């Protein structure tokens, strides 16, 4: 994974491992939605009837089904027991930020915020690589284009703008120079 937990991290009372040889010890097995492409039904690997098989993603349902052309219907109704996503109606709610992150951000005070904003010289950044696959991606592209045409300075990067490599070389200081990040 390029983000998320590392081997041996603890989350609550759980320890994270990517070692598939330890599946018999697991109370829960997380399947990132992309990992399900490699699996077939019926499931040919070990599974204890008390284990929770968990569907995990931070992507929108529309992008998974339409944009990435995932066929999750090959799994029967009892393969996945619970969901773990950014949606509040998931069995396991996994927000993009933790309560501790929010507390530390807001406890710094007005002086910290004023200092932070004084260093931001650029207005908005948008990084996108899903341009025209689904209706939502086309709508957000049109929306940002109209904002730019109206005069809002938005620096746009990613596959859609053929400058993904240029963005990958951005330093932390460059990223922090933006007041806003466009997210849809």
TrEMBL record:
InterPro entries: Glyco_tran_10_C, Glyco_tran_10_N, Glyco_trans_10, GT10-like_C_sf. SUPFAM superfamilies: UDP-Glycosyltransferase/glycogen phosphorylase. It is an enzyme of class 2 (transferase). Pathway: Protein modification; protein glycosylation. Its EC number is 2.4.1.-. Residues 118-184 form the Fucosyltransferase C-terminal domain. One of its GO terms (molecular function) is alpha-(1->3)-fucosyltransferase activity. It comes from the Eukaryota. GO terms for cellular component: Golgi cisterna membrane. Keywords: Glycoprotein, Glycosyltransferase, Golgi apparatus, Membrane, Signal-anchor, Transferase, Transmembrane, Transmembrane helix. Belongs to the glycosyltransferase 10 family. This is Fucosyltransferase. The lineage of its organism: Eukaryota, Metazoa, Chordata, Tunicata, Ascidiacea.
